[in-house]
Amino acid sequence: MLRGPTPLRCYGDNSNHSYYIFLESRFMGFQFPNLTTFLSLMPHDKMPQLLNSMPPSHLGDFLRRPDIVDSDAELCVLFNSYTQTLEFLEKESLPAEVRRPTLPCVWPMALSSSKRSEVNAWFDRSLNNYYEFLTKTLISPDTTDNATCLAFQKVISVLGDYNYTAVDFVRGDVFTSIRSYLHSATVPRCYNSSDPELNSTAWFADYIGSFAPSLTLTDLQAFGSQQVLQVFTVNLENIALFNHSVFQLNFTSYYVELVYLQESNFNPILLPPVFRCAAPGAAFTQLSEELSVIVLRNLTDICTDLDPQISSALAGNFGDNLDATNIASLGNEASSLTMDQIHSIRVEVLLASLSVLSTVLGWNEGQARAIIQAIMLSGQMQINSSSTLIMLGSLVMGCPTTAFTSINASELIISGQNSAFLVNLMTAPQIVQQVFVTQIVSVNSNSEAIIENVPDAMATEIPPVQLLGLSGKDSVIKKLNKKKWKKQQVELFFSVIAVETSTAMLGGANNLSSSVLQGFTCTGVRSVRTVQIKKLIKACRRKGKRKVKLVETQLTCMYNYIKGDSDATSFALYPPDVLLYYDYSLVPQASCRSYFEELADADFTVFSSDLSYKRTALFDNARSCLGITTTSLTKDNIKVLGNMCCSVDGSYIENSDPSILEILKTCPDLTDAQASAAQSLLLSGKTPYGETSTWDLQTLQDLGMIPLYMTSTFYDQFDKKTKRNFLKYFRKILKSNGVSRGKRRTMKKQIRKSIKKKTKRSIESECTSGTITHVTISRETFPFDYDDVTQFNCCLSAATVKGNLEALTEKVDDEEFLAIVLLRLHEAYGDNATIPEDQVQMLGPASRVATVSHISRWSITEVDTLYALMDSSDGVWNTSLAKAVISNYLSNAGNALGSAELNTIGGANLCALDVDVLKNISPQSLKEANALDVSTCSTEKKEELFTIALQAFTTTTRSTAVPLTTYQLISAYLGGTTRAYIQTLVTSNVSMDVPTFTTLNESIVTSLTVSDVQGLLGSNVADLKSYENQTVGYHRHHDHQPYHSHHRLKQRVNLIITNVLSSYNLIITNVLSSYNLIITNVLSSNNLIFTNVLSSYNLIITNVLSSYNLLFTNVLSSYNLLFTNVLSSYSLLFTNILSRNNLLFTNIVSSYNLIISNILSSYNLLFTNILSSYNTIFTNILSSYNLIFTNILSSYNLIITNILSSYNLIISNILSSNISNILILSHILIISNIIILIHHCARNHQHHYDFCYHHSPRLPPPSRRWLLPLLPPGALHRFSAPCGVRSLH
């Protein structure tokens, strides 16, 4: 009936009649149709009419029927056609099983609503009972991205306080939808300043709401441009979202930056507490003193690294009338007080606040000095004991040296036992630390008492001369090993601590501290067993912070000790730096890769300019080993080469695998060519750092130290904001790595240049960049925003410089800017006024741009001031300016060049003084000072300093030899030594290193003989060839008269070789002459012997032959033993020397081989003829004694053959050895032949050996000593005492 030809004909056309009531009347008590059937009964074209005929109450009755909804899809059909859905959902309550499928049907309707009233109706009333059925699909971007702005606001509001425990999504899923919805490249979505519905700046509150904690910087930047987003940042509703959440630092910084771009004077109190940490310091200057106290307390608790600019602003808000309460409120931020504020604090307040002030970290020297000076001048507190020193806490860095000289030294020993005091003292200027230690030393000058009294961390300040005479006691050795030392100190006691008995106390050489091992020298180990020396060398193989810092002379010395060992090619056993000096020809080709892999960790900057050619040779050898034939290094090549990549030229860097950048990031320095190549490689975009268009702050940070060397072209790729933020970050890196001011200055110039390219040079005569104040200077990147010197000049006042000098000179590096600072300082005190001492102490690098006229107006009366001015970290002094500074100091009564002054001035600046001034240095002052580098002094000044040093370090002993420690102490001054003193060193076994040798005056060097040089250099003589291109007396160019004849050491080496050859010729001549005499005497003596034997002494001959056989047996036995030992002992030496000098001797050997061959040929023929003749004579004469004489001649032939064989071997050794060994072997040869003569002579003089001995050819004293053990048994007692035994001994 209901589906007949005329459907619903009984319903009629009255749409006001409820379709549900109609069906209910037709079905009466029968089963009511389910939803699908219910809808199927409706003609399709009349479905909307029929559905909307039902009021919400009727539809509710229908849907509340049990199991009525059989299809979720049909339910959505129903609601899509029903126009009273809003009212229905609000008024009708449905069972959960119906509400669940209902929500997906009506949710899109709610999201598409655009009128605020309709949106409110949907989300505030109609859907209240349906939110629990939300699903991940319904809140996903696919669903919500098409929502209207007003509807999306409501969704965020609803889900902000939603209970997520029973649903299949979490808050993060909601934020994903928010991020997707709000993403916009330019204008933020749902914001239109001209639309009343969409012009609210509470944009973050409306569209992000309580999901704000999920925001990241990337998200924020994706929502719109900086220019538009900054409009929202100052809205207090938005700000409130961030009050109780933690955000990433970069997000916080960016948000706050936008705030102050929008409103530069925005009150930081309105920001969330953690956001205040990123606010500009200038914003806090508007706060009252009361608010400043509150904010400061909060910030010190919240901010992990409070911006100094904020501290300065808040401290400045306290004004110039600070009391103890104010100082207590400032706490650690008291270090942000200006000098004017500190000077204004009453002494009573300072004393009352000492418990606070003494705990402040971050004082600069000027601040601490001002506080201490005020306390000391008041007389209200005496700094005269250990307790008062300890009480000063961090302020101790401001104590002048006079404070320590006036305290009983025993009190200083007590204070030195307090660890907190030591930590604070280590922040004081080095001159203060030196005086502190000097005072302790004065208590007891015994070296072992000194190392007991001086704190371990301050042992570096012990005068080297005070470290002599240390014993090898267990307690002493362990104490020495715990302390921190300088290289020149350890060298003086290394021979004590390096021996096996000492290292055994520590558990072996490997347990020696790196601080001790840095004192290894050839001089120091000359009396240490070779086995132990090799252990010490291996102990130096350390990496990282424990790496032993060794210099070239130490490394070459080490190599000379290990090069002959079988394990010398076990490269992993030795410090990588030692491998730098290996003779590569001794590296097996099969092991060359492992050699370079170990060498990868070496420090290639250790090469001196004299041996820099070795660095080039190493790379050439590496190329050969690794098969590198082009300038393109592979990733594997770079891995093997390691630190060697720090020394390759630019072509390799530019053409190699980009991984080379990772090596360059860690290089201690880069040349301009290397930096340029690295820059080109980066700009190519073919590195892991990508195209330049993608570069950002993270790129700069990831490049390590490379940005330090880049040019403005590189920095052009970054905007000014990125460069500012990078400088803020990089400044701390540079400081922690101890990068010089010069390098920092160069980098900042390049950055400034890149900024100037994009801005016109200022021609303003007034300040437009902002007046420079204490708060401005406190900015970590200052003076970055004053990229033009004109603006810096216009914006900096004399008053600001006067009150903030130290802060300015600590931040400013550019010479032009420093010149302005110095100019303003002099303006502050007037044209002719003297600059006070406390200001002079804070000049820093500004002092280097001064003139002599400026310096004449500086007050320099204290050694503390002299030290501050001479600080090498502020730059190198011009000679005339250094002289002016030192002369200014010395012009004050009582000031002299004492040990403290010498340490302060240093060698280079000392050379600026006139000789007459240097003559006033006392030997005691020089003795107690550190070794000074006076290599830049003129010859006259060097000679004067050496004269003083000789008096200072010479000790009175019976021996004519120079003690080892004396040599070590005086070696720094040998550039001015005398010929006589060098001669005493020649016989003192000092093992002078070659660099020291090259500093000697040229006239002295050219006067030395070969043996002099050998005696002087000792084990270092093998290094002589390596330094053949070094200039002797190089620093002669500082003489008053020009010096144009700079001889190179190569000439000296050639001279030495010439002397070797001359001596060699003389020796050969003498050997041959002696040999001729020996042969003549042998033949003459034998003729006489044979005649006598044949005439009547058959029995004697028998006895003589018996004795003779025994004698020759003993002689040959002794000779063979001696010769074997000599050859064994010198074999290693010859090998080592030849490895160094082989090239030089090749030509000599080739020439003299021919001569010796001819001589030997002639003498072999002579001996053959002689023997042939005498064989015939003996055969005729001894016809009756044939058997006996046949044996005699057989023995004689054997002896002669052995002599000739020995002679040939000796000559061969002469050709391959150095001069000292030639002399030794020559003596041996002469001795062996003279023994024959003595024996023949003795037979004719009734065994009077003394007569024969003294009539033998003249022997040098050493040969006489060697002769004695070779004489036959019984010979010794036959020598008369006066001329025999005494002379032999």
Automatic annotation (TrEMBL):
<dbReference type="GO" id="GO:0016020">
    <property type="term" value="C:membrane"/>
</dbReference>
<keyword id="KW-0130">Cell adhesion</keyword>
<dbReference type="Pfam" id="PF06060">
    <property type="entry name" value="Mesothelin"/>
</dbReference>
<dbReference type="InterPro" id="IPR010335">
    <property type="entry name" value="Mesothelin"/>
</dbReference>
<dbReference type="GO" id="GO:0009986">
    <property type="term" value="C:cell surface"/>
</dbReference>
<protein>
    <recommendedName>
        <fullName>Mesothelin-like protein</fullName>
    </recommendedName>
</protein>
<comment type="similarity">
    <text>Belongs to the mesothelin family.</text>
</comment>
<feature type="transmembrane region" description="Helical">
    <location>
        <begin position="1088"/>
        <end position="1112"/>
    </location>
</feature>
<feature type="transmembrane region" description="Helical">
    <location>
        <begin position="1119"/>
        <end position="1138"/>
    </location>
</feature>
<feature type="transmembrane region" description="Helical">
    <location>
        <begin position="1144"/>
        <end position="1166"/>
    </location>
</feature>
<dbReference type="InterPro" id="IPR026664">
    <property type="entry name" value="Stereocilin-rel"/>
</dbReference>
<feature type="transmembrane region" description="Helical">
    <location>
        <begin position="1178"/>
        <end position="1199"/>
    </location>
</feature>
<dbReference type="GO" id="GO:0007160">
    <property type="term" value="P:cell-matrix adhesion"/>
</dbReference>
<feature type="transmembrane region" description="Helical">
    <location>
        <begin position="1219"/>
        <end position="1238"/>
    </location>
</feature>
<keyword id="KW-0325">Glycoprotein</keyword>
<keyword id="KW-0812">Transmembrane</keyword>
<keyword id="KW-0732">Signal</keyword>
<keyword id="KW-0472">Membrane</keyword>
<keyword id="KW-1133">Transmembrane helix</keyword>
